[in-house]
Structures are given as structure tokens and as C-alpha cells.
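This section describes the prediction task in plain terms. A model, or a person checking by hand, is given the sequence of a single protein chain and must write out its three-dimensional structure as a string of C-alpha cells. No templates, partner chains or ligands are provided. The sample shown here is typical of the held-out split.
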Amino acid sequence: MAEPLPQKILVVDDESDVSTLVAYHLKAKGYQIEVVNDPNRSIGIARTFLPDLVILDVMMPELNGIQICRMLRADPQLKKVPVIFLTAKAEENDRIQGLETGADDYICKPFSTKELVLRVQTILRRLAVVTPEVPKRIQVGEIVMDTERHVVQLQGQPLELTATEFNLLKLLMERRGRVQTREHLLLNVWNYETEIETRTVDTHVRRLREKLGTEADWIETVRGVGYRIAEKRTAE
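The expected answer:
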């Protein structure tokens, strides 16, 4: 039996010392790494390399990480690829902007290479896990999810979600009517065992609601606790 191909990671950072350090530690874990120090070349290389994950600096000349992330999310081949922002911009508003752009994680410089590797492993492991299950179709209002085919329809039309948004919606829909705490969501969607990143949940829920449009009110906020999918709409 042929060995599985190594997972591919694209590292985009204009600082060569940082990208070299990141590449060294990820290669040591068996990943295939492509490094880009010129942000203007990042999308073209991503389309050729087709990474399983992108590590992306934010503060770069000419084309910054926020712009590149938006371009990735707009590309049919790359829109579902997880993105980790690696940046010196540590303010809360900066983290929120990064997550709202479509990033899956946010690590501030200076950073621990051990933490970075663990974050990468967590995201890729989550995407690689195939859970045997009976083909399943879940419906809430005009939201229809096919968990086997990994697709969602909204009012009969395909709904584009990132991998994290899909997993978040799936967990809420599967546990309809039950409150999911932010900590529980972090552990089961992001695999984090810490309370530090709870704003991550709020940001992704807000973005998910925006995509759900008129069906957004199915997701209820339970003040001070977390979120749930309502048993029925209050208007019904």
C-alpha cells in the first residue's frame, strides 16, 4: 500500500527569517512546505501548489494578508483552505478583523514555534478525520445540510461555507434546542482547551449569521453562555 502524500502548507511572509523558521519546524513534522516572501506571487503559487493550509502574515508591503485572505476566499479552488494569520498586530480589533475576513486562527508575533505547530496539527487533523456515519440530512427552516456530501443549501441554493463555518453549523444543527457554551464549541469545533479565544466563537457565529440571511434568527444567543439552534422560530 502506497504511503499517503504529506499534507501541504503554504507560508506567506515577507520576512525571510520568519518564514524559514516556520518552514523548518513544519518540515520536521513531515509537512510539504512552500514559502513565498513576495506577497504579489502568493495567489499564483497557491493555485499551483494547492495547499491544505495557508500560514499568512498580515503586515506586508503592496498586498497585505487581509487582502490575500479575501482573494483566497473568492477563489473556487482555494476558498475552503484553512488560513492561520501570523502577525505582530495583537490588538483585539485586529484579531476580529482577521477572523471576519475568513481566517480560521490567529497567532501573534513573537510566537512559540511549538504552539504554531500544534495549531497547524489541530486544524489539519480536524479536516482529515473521516467519521463513519449513516448518510445524514439535517434541516432547520430553509437550511438543509447533507453531512455526507458536506454541502449546505439555503432556500434551495448552494451556500458557500468555510470548513470551520460548516462544522460550527453542523454541531448547532445536530444539537438543536440545546445550548452550546462557547467553551464547548471551542473544544468541539476548534479543538481548543482554553477560554482565551472565546471571541473567536462570537466572530464566526456573526459571520455565519450574515451568510444565512433571513434564516439567521434560527441561531439564538443565550446571554453569558453561548448559542443554540431554536426549536422553532418565535414568529411561528
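For orientation: The two ends are 56 Å apart (CA to CA).
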